[in-house]
Every structure is written in structure tokens, then in C-alpha cells.
Amino acid sequence: MSSISSIFDNLQKNRWRISQTNAQERIEKLKNLRKHILQKRYDIYKALHDDFQKNEVEIELTEIQPTVAEINFCMKRLKKWMKPQRIKTPMMLMGTKSRLRYEARGVVLIISPWNYPFHLAVVPLISAIAAGNCVIVKPSEVTPHTSHLLCELISQVFDKNEVCVVEGDVSICQELLKFPFDHIFFTGSGRVGKHIMRAAAENLSSITLELGGKSPAIVDKTASIKSAAQRIMWGKFLNAGQTCVAPDYVLVHKEVHEMFIAAVKNVWKKFYGESSRPEVGQIVSEKHWERLATMLDEVIADGGKVVLGGQRECNHNYLAPTIVRDVSLTASIMKQEIFGPILPIVTYESLDEVTSFICNNDKPLAVYIFSHSRGNIQRILTNTTSGGTCVNNVAIHLGNPHLPFGGVNASGIGNYHGFHGFKTFSHARSILYQGPFSGLSFIYPPYREWTKKLARCVTNIFS
Fold first, then answer.
1. CA–CA distances in Å: residue 61 to residues 36, 363, 396
2. Fewer CB near the last or first residue (10 Å), C or N of the chain?
3. What is the CATH superfamily name and number for domain 216-399?
4. Alpha helices, DSSP H, located in 83-139
């Protein structure tokens, strides 16, 4: 592979040509990308299975389908997005007209994570291409088979002077961050996000940070307990809990706590049968497995009781879906993002406890509210903040391309998906056209007494 410096220079030289492509040219590129993704469906299955035993159903539903859906959504609307928008002009600027035009940022860097290594690399790439950028994609080295596949696929779809995949470890990422990218899009942990932000500051590069955090699921006493248990269990244990928007813990009203535990047990049997080794994907690496095993040991030491699961196989990086009850809000597991198949269940007595706990910690990527009380729902929405929220479900808000997806502060900066992704990778350029007549000419120097009176008169009229 060419040196990073030569790759960056070639993209810089090409960025003006790419930024001037029209909507149809960009749509053709997205069509070609979609075609290659569908042609390589079974290669994608194999790469993700080889990386961390991900099953085909989850690959199809969480990696391939939403990626293709994003392409289709963008292609259908791109001409409209690219068209300059008419903007209202105030009377003070009579004789002018205003437009808003979205322009490519230039050369952008996408640093993608390991948990959904295909989807979370390609979806921001779709937005970047739709906006007319040149791109370097840096996939995670933790999932090498998917990284290699991305490199092969993207090289078949795009010219190397438009989109290039750079593989490698942390040192390669650090080297990339030295270059003056016009935008950096990072998905990963908050700890690494801080390093990305510092590096971007050196070149005043704009950034989007898609991070994570402890997203709570709140079950009040008006909730449909059966459906709440089913939806929370599905969202939590999808991809072995390695999902940024997975419910991190459950806050259950004490009056329905035992009902919820019973419902969870029924859902467990429905999902996994009587197996002593539920079939889920493995933890991505030994390092991450050890972190989760330690976390589980600590929550048990803190007084938590394992209701279901808990089986471990260190030689296969396997940790069964695990439900832990009687967890205290002060337990160590409640202080850090779990990012794995451990679900703590905490009881509460009043919504004040719930909102206070959420607000006294980092702002979460999502808040999930299970309730049929409009008052309770509104109270939680009013007294908390998060990147997104689902009412009576989990995680599926990111499947709506009309909604922006992103966090707030510790859970992220900026957003994307659909038009919001197009905007993220674009510069909104304000343009004002002056006609033959300008009323401002009456207040040009030299300033005489009548000019002062006119200025005061204008202020009074428009105040």
C-alpha cells in the first residue's frame, strides 16, 4: 500500500473534481456500491462469522439490510438535497435574494468500530459519497476479516483517488490523525473519542463522534410487562450485547419487579430454550471477555444475584446472556458502560429516583421508556436528556432514516443517517445575491445629521 502521505495527497488533488460531480453521478456510485454489497453477501457472512461467530440472521438484519436501506433512501432523495434552497430575506436587505447551498467538505476520514464492523463503516461512507467527498476509511483491526473484505469491496467500487481503505493498528490511526482532514467521523468509545478530538483540534478539523454510554430502560407499573421484557431482552443480547444502543440496565418499579423477573424467565425460554449454552455470538476478543468476566464477578460481590445465564468459556470468548437482579445503584457495574451480555435489574420507588440517577451521570446515547402513562412518559422526557429515545421499544429509532442518530456530550457529538448524514459531510454555504438596487446605499458615509435620523428611524421600524 502507498504511504498515508501519498494517499492523502492524491485525495486532496482529486477532491475538487469529486465535489463538482452532479447528483446522477453520485447516485450511480451508490448503485454500484449496493450491487457489490449484495453480490458479496455470503463473503460478508463469512467475514463476520470468522471475526466473532456472528450468525447470518443478525448479519442480514443489522449489517446488510440497514446499509442497503440507507443507500436506497439517499439515492431517492439526493437530487432534492443537492438543490440550492431558497432562503427568506428580511426587508432591511430589500433588493437581494438568498440561497443555501450544500457543498462537499473535501477529504474526510471515517474511523469505524469492531462491533458492527461492516455497517458502521459503510453507512457513514454512503453519506460522505452522497455529499461529494473523497474518503479514507480506517476499519477496526479487532475484526481483521471484515476489514480485509471492506478493503477489497471498496477498491472494486471506487477509484483509489476517491475512496481508500487504510488498514492497520492504533499506530496507523495515530498517523492518519496528523493530517488536516476536512472532517473526521469516529465511532467508538468515549475514551478514544477524546484522543480523536484532541488530534482534530491540531488541524481545526470538524468532527462527528458517535460514542456510547449507559442507556437505561425504565419500566413503570403501567407498562406491558411481557412485551417490555421481550423487547429489552432482544435489544440487550443482540450481537452478544456489543451494541452501542443496547439497554445497559433496567430500572423497574418495585410493584412490578417480580412480574418483570418472571417475564424475563419466560422470554429466556422462548429465545434460548432449555440450553445450558444459549447460542449467541462470542465476545470479540479475550481482552473484552476478561473485562466482562471481571465486571460480572464484581456485581455478584456487590450483592447482585444471577437469575439466568452466567456461563463462561474463556477459550472461546463466550459469555452467556446473563440477568442479574438486586443490583444497587451504587454497584460498580452501574458506573461504566457494560457493552456485553450482562443485564442488571434495579428497582425504584419513584420517578424522581430514576431521573435523578440518569441526570447525575453522563448523558446516555438512548433512554428507553416502557409506560402507558402519558404523564410518566412526559415527566421522564422533560427531566432527562439523551441522544435518542424510544417509548415502549428499544434501539429501533436508529432504523428510521428520517431521524438524526447521535449522542449528546459524553455519548457523542453530531449525528447522521439520511439527510442528517448528508449534512454532516457537507458545508452549508450561505449565498446572498445583490440586485441593482440596495437600500443600504442611503446610510453610506459621510454620516450627516439626516443619516443619523434615518439610522434611528430604521431601528425603530424594525424593532
1. 18, 28, 12
2. C
3. Aldehyde Dehydrogenase; Chain A, domain 2 (3.40.309.10)
4. 119-130
Look up cell 454620516; give the residue: 447
Find out whether 105 and 133 touch, Cβ atoms under 8 Å.
yes
Torsion of CA 213, 412, 23, 180, to 10 degrees: -130
Nearest to 363 by CA among 216, 253, 247, 196: 216
d(CA 42, CA 134): 28
CA-to-CA distance for 147 and 244, rounded, in angstroms? 20
- Specify burial of residue 300 (Cβ count, 10 A radius: 0-12, 13-18, 19+): middle
Active site residues: 210, 244
- pLDDT per residue, tens digit, the chain (463 aa), is 469 999 999 999 999 999 999 999 999 999 999 999 999 999 999 999 999 999 999 999 999 999 999 999 999 999 999 999 999 999 889 899 999 999 999 999 999 999 999 999 999 999 999 999 999 999 999 999 999 999 999 999 999 999 999 999 999 999 999 999 999 999 999 999 999 999 999 999 999 999 999 999 999 999 999 999 999 999 999 999 999 999 999 999 999 999 999 999 999 999 998 877 888 889 999 999 999 999 999 999 989 999 999 999 988 999 999 999 999 888 889 999 999 999 999 999 999 999 999 999 999 999 999 999 999 999 999 999 999 999 999 999 999 999 999 999 999 999 999 999 999 999 999 999 999 988 888 888 888 888 888 888 888 887 7
Max distance between CA atoms of the chain, in angstroms, equals: 92
- Domain ranges for the chain: 4-211+412-427, 216-399
Angle between helices 23-39 and 144-157 (to 10 degrees): 140
What single letter denotes the amino acid at residue 72?
Answer: N
d(CA 137, CA 153): 12
d(CA 151, CA 125): 13
Contact predicate 224/192, CB 8 Å? no
CATH fold of the domain at 4-211+412-427: Aldehyde Dehydrogenase; Chain A, domain 1 (3.40.605)
How far is residue 141 CA from its own chain's centroid?
Answer: 19
Q: How far apart are the first and last CA of the chain?
A: 62
**What backbone phi and psi angles, to 5 degrees, belong to 179?**
-90, 150
Sheet of 85-87, strand order: 85-87, 96-104, 426-434
